[in-house]
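A reminder before we start the practical. When you read a complex entry, don't treat the lines as separate problems. The point of joint prediction is that each chain is placed relative to the others, so the output describes one connected object in space. Small molecules and nucleic acid strands, if listed, are placed in the same frame. In the example below there are two entries. Take a minute to note the order of the lines before looking further.
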Amino acid sequence: MRASLAPRRRLYNTGAKLLLWLSAGICCVLLLFVIGYICYRGLPGVSWELLTGQESILQGTAGIFPSLVNTLYVIIVSLAVALPLGAGAAIYLTEYAKSRRLVNAVEFAADILAGIPSILYALIGVILFCTALRLQKTLLAGSLTLAIMILPTILRTTQESLRTVPRSYREGSLGLGSGQWHMIRTVVLPSAADGIVTGCILAAGRVTGESAVLMYTAGLSTVMQDFSSIENIMKASGATLTAALYVYAKERADFAEAFAVATILLFLTILINFSAELAAKRLHKRKK
Amino acid sequence: MNRSRTRSSPSELAMRTLLFICALTAVIFVLLITVYLILSGLPAIQEIGLFNFLFGDIWQPTSSTDPKFGILPMILTSIYGAAAAIVIGVPIGIFTAIFLAKAAPPKLAALIRPMIGLLAGIPSVVYGLVGMCVLVPCLRKWLDLPAGDSLLAAVIVLAVMILPSVISVSETALEAVPKEYEEASLALGATELETYFRVTAPAAKSGIAAAAALGTGRAIGEAMAILMVAGNVANMPSLLKSVRFLTTGIAIEMNYAAPGSLQRQALFSIGLVLFLFIMLINILLSIVLKADKGDNL
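Here is the predicted structure of the whole assembly.
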């Protein structure tokens, strides 16, 4: 049947097929090249000492433990702020809101927040948290800025997972005399939990990969910070993994270390993507 | 009738109010961001003069004798850079999306999709690092330049970085096209590939346009990756010269500009200009999406 096509159409078909395979091929080759190259230059530098050690010029040791801790700090604090806000907003929008206008306004605002580039968040962090709220350049200021940035991610994923909870669950609970919030807490939220977890994983991924905001709001020190008291925790200021990578590569031209950090970031990205996919798969299974 | 009474028990009412406040935070943040960006961006523009700021072609903020604050080179670089990245990245992205949504064997598509997700997840500094260590030296050698840091390097990095968002948005749009369209086309004797290109893709055109708009936003807004490969001299845009984008213009001087100085205030003004660009793209995007809804009705 194919053989009976006119030559021009056959050419079109072959050309189109080639184009599609070529484009997809380019994407895959690009990814494999980036992963391969990072691992090739970075893996030899990754060692237990690097992961758990501190950088010291006096002792000539390299180590990125402080940056790892800072990254964890930023993930935890920004999620702790954004999760209640984002999930709460999503709950209000799907369970309570009666005015379509309010829903539209909040969704539009979330879309705008999602579209603002990170360098502008950096400026906002500098103006709002570092200067106006007098937090100076601290991990806390950086985390709060990032909380705004990941708010739309959490809001949208929570909203989506709340929508997958069947109406009958809600009606059953309300019919038995439960109050609205009691119903949400005991029936809706448990069934939407995996969607919310997916949102948190995605948000953690964005925070891990973010650099511009943290470079200007959280500082660039690669020395271990003092987390011994609440006051010190609030004052701590340092570089996360991405900021440390930038400092090593661009300001110190220390590429061995930069690629080692890049390798670690790459593994974190793969880990985060994998777990997000796993969580999303569970969500889809339930949907069916 | 009784429900309204149970619902307004004190704890229920408290939760309802609390959640309402949560819902408002997104709106409040947007307002705060807009107001603060405008308030901190305006003083420098007033001092420099809007025309001199937007259309001045020399940026030398730290010159002691004759400081100049013209951001035209950065504006043009951002526009050219984003446009070129889109010309390269969007077609590849759309073809890959057609491949994944329609033409690929399902098993292969299931293998490639997570790879695209990974491409989206790789931090921008990592792209910058690879660009710095692979792309820049290669460009220098191949094109016989004194330095490989150039608009071209930045464009290539940007094109790669917008791929995943273009792919995922247009794939969703392609998958939403009703099966009947394709079946009708196939029944009329078109081959599968002709159907994808001449029926499915045109039917998903507004989704694909949204993907392109999203890519544009990403390309205009990216800072760290191109900071590492573009050279960062505020030249008028030229493909093989070192250039400075709006984003990198902020990034490169932010940590050095003295607080309260006109230079620092001018950086906030650049931020305001960038913000306006992004809002413009967002508005265009929502118009495109709304037009689509109108079509379907």
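Discuss with your neighbour: The beta strands of chain B are 59-60, 68-69. What might explain this?
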